[in-house]
Design goal:
By secondary structure, the protein is of the alpha+beta class. It is built from two helices and five strands; from the N terminus they run H-E-E-E-E-E-H. Strand 3 (54-62) and strand 4 (70-76) form a beta hairpin. The N and C termini lie far apart (32 Å).
């Protein structure tokens, strides 16, 4: 199964929102997905123009029910590692992409 088989229109509105932000700021995107035992997961990775500038959005839920899909993502963290930390707020992820390299403090996310 390929990412082309994912129907973006059948995903939650937050997926379209993140995709629009990546296009707006000129970042490349990579769409992948997985299916397992009736569960569906979509990964949307955004890549900036500088190596290491990346964010990730993940939508996971029962197959065929976009309204039940839950979001989590990965965004930059404080410190010298410049690693990514899990966050559960789409707006933290897209704000980090727009304002990169502004870090997200470890463990700081709001729903």
């Amino acid at each position: 199964m390929t990412a082309r088989e994912v129907d973006p229109a059948a995903l939650p509105a937050s997926f379209a929102e993140m995709r629009a932000v990546l296009a707006e700021i000129g970042w490349r995107e990579r769409l992948t997905h997985a299916r397992d035992g009736g569960w569906f997961t979509v990964f949307l990775d955004g890549y900036g123009d500088v190596p290491g500038r990346t964010v990730r959005g993940v939508w996971h839920g029962p197959e065929g029910d976009p309204g039940a899909m839950r979001f989590w993502g990965m965004a930059p963290v404080d410190g010298p590692s410049k690693g990514l930390a899990p966050v559960d707020d789409l707006h933290v992820v897209v704000d980090c992409a727009r304002n990169y390299p502004e870090p997200v403090p470890m463990g700081d996310s709001e729903s």
